[in-house]
Design brief:
By secondary structure, the protein is mainly α. It is built from 22 helices and no strands. This is Zn(2)-C6 fungal-type domain-containing protein.
């Protein structure tokens, strides 16, 4: 590893690190009287401290979890790097559980609960280029750390730590395709949040208050994805008395010693917060999933469906139109967030926006293929536009340093977008559109292949697309019809889908591979 040019605290807050002398703390850490990793490095030989500071009131189980990290973990400097990789590639793109500067201080001091450290490393080790992992396939590097985290998880302890560990484990098991296990871990986290009354639990600092708020809203969001993915009711419902999160750069600059506790007001929000925008979009996703579930049980889309789509479409458009200028999907904003160290989170917001839109309008692709109604064509075009928007922001993300996104859900949303491009390839009569769709499919395949080197669940993504491709080859009239098979394909993202049931198909007309734009 090359020597760092900034201490951990300054890297976490994405600001320049000013050092006045070798071995001395940087200006930021010295002014706030916090441990500086540059100072810690002069007293460390790369091993973990013999014992972490333990509070007199700490329980015996907590002492076991917080004691010095054992030899089955990488050396301390590498562990610090692995937690930084977790914050770079995992945290804030799908959940927000920690205050990065404070958590990094705990890692350096050796006071981080072991269950959390193992959980984070289980997700981030795949991204390391350190020789420590050279002989281990990136896709399975995290497995032993996830197993240890699961062993350390104490279900009898109702606490924020248990909640955070359960979310980390849920995020890990879904990478192995274990959707039911993911739902169980997230349910544990949700129950802890409810038992603690997490948004209103007494706290002593602004950092604690905001971490609790962000963890609560993160659970509300992942609960939607997870519950819809396995077809069970939600465990946690949004509450109007919980404020929205603060803007991210403000949050990262907080110090855990700050005691100023502002009184939250009902639905208080910061419109500039990326997490706040994710929360608003997630509420729309839940309604879209229910609407598509009803559509799958109907023979054709009725008037009620059209009215519901119109209402949700207006909510999506209102969301975008109400955004501050600095949050809109532009090249300049993407570059600005990259400079702030928030590029992946900005991209994640728009992956959600474009994906939820393509899901909302997806049922109209079937009608667009065979009906010449104005409504079908209008909403099918909006579906294609959202699919293209999703592809384009991913292309820009991977071509902009500091914006690359590698979390697992990228694979799922890109597969759905690719099926919309496949629709263009099959049914469009415009040669320009056909060439563009074929080009996007090729680029999407490259991205999915890249993601597959990190995540086992990408194997499922490829299998799902292959089954969809097979259905298009066999069944012209029903390849895009919203039925139970299609509903599973769109929402049960961790499960392989079987072959379309011929009993549900209206007309069996085969497509050739050449018509699909693929070679045998």
């Amino acid at each position: 590893m090359r020597p760092p040019t900034a201490c951990v605290a300054c890297r976490s807050r994405r600001r320049k690190c000013e050092v006045t002398a070798h071995g001395a703390p940087c200006v930021y850490c010295k002014n706030r009287n916090v441990d500086c990793s540059f100072t810690s490095a002069t007293h460390s030989n790369g091993a973990w401290p013999n014992r972490s500071p333990i509070s007199p009131t700490t329980t015996e189980f907590e002492q076991t979890r917080c004691q010095s990290i054992t030899s089955d973990l990488p050396p301390q400097p590498l562990c610090v790097e692995l937690v930084e990789l977790y914050f770079r590639y995992i945290h804030d793109t799908f959940h927000s559980l920690f205050h990065p500067p404070s958590l990094m201080q705990d890692v350096i001091r050796g006071t981080i609960p072991r269950v959390l450290l193992y959980g984070m490393i289980s997700l981030s080790a795949r991204f390391s280029s350190d020789s420590f992992f050279a002989a281990v396939d990136p896709r399975v590097r995290g497995r032993r750390y996830a197993q240890e985290a699961e062993h350390l998880l104490n279900l009898r302890e109702v606490s924020l730590t248990t909640l955070q560990a359960a979310v980390l484990l849920g995020a890990y098991v879904i990478t192995e395709g274990e959707a039911a296990a993911e739902a169980v871990f997230y349910s544990v986290a949700c129950r802890n949040a409810l038992l603690l009354d997490l948004p209103h639990i007494p706290v002593t600092s602004r950092v604690e208050q905001e971490v609790n708020c962000r963890a609560w809203w993160s659970l509300c969001m992942v609960d939607v994805w997870s519950s819809r993915g396995v077809g069970i009711p939600r465990s946690l419902m949004p509450r109007s008395d919980v404020p929205y999160p603060m803007e991210e750069t403000v949050f990262h600059q907080l110090c855990r010693q700050e005691r100023d506790l502002p009184s939250p007001t009902s639905m208080q929000e910061s419109s500039a917060s990326l997490l706040t925008q994710m929360i608003k979009l997630n509420a729309i996703l839940f309604e879209v999933s229910l609407l598509n579930e009803r559509a799958a049980s109907e023979f054709q889309l009725g008037v009620d469906h059209g009215a519901a789509v119109e209402a949700l479409s207006a909510r999506l458009e209102d969301w975008y139109n109400s955004l501050p200028v600095g949050l809109q999907d532009t090249h300049a904003n993407l570059s600005r967030y990259a400079a702030l160290g928030l590029g992946p989170m900005f991209v994640a917001v728009y992956l959600g926006y474009y994906h939820y839109g393509q899901l909302l309008y997806y049922p109209y692709l079937h009608g667009d293929s065979y009906d010449d109604t104005v409504q079908a064509r209008y909403y099918a075009d909006k579906c294609k536009a959202h699919s293209i928007g999703l592809c384009e922001i991913l292309y820009r993300a991977y071509s902009t340093a500091g914006c690359e996104v590698y979390y697992t859900m990228v694979g799922h949303v890109l597969v759905i977008a690719s099926t919309v491009q496949l629709h263009i390839l099959l049914f469009s009569s415009d040669e320009v559109q056909i060439r563009a769709a074929r080009s996007r499919l090729e680029r999407n395949f490259e991205i999915l292949t890249r993601l597959q080197t990190f995540w086992p669940t990408l194997d499922v993504c490829f299998t799902r697309f292959r089954e969809f491709h097979k259905a298009c080859q066999k069944y012209k009239e029903t390849s895009f019809r919203m039925d139970r098979w299609m509903l599973q394909f769109l929402f049960e993202f961790a499960k392989p889908v079987g072959e379309k049931n011929p009993d549900d198909l209206a007309e069996l007309i085969p497509w050739s591979l050449q018509e699909l734009g693929f070679t045998p």
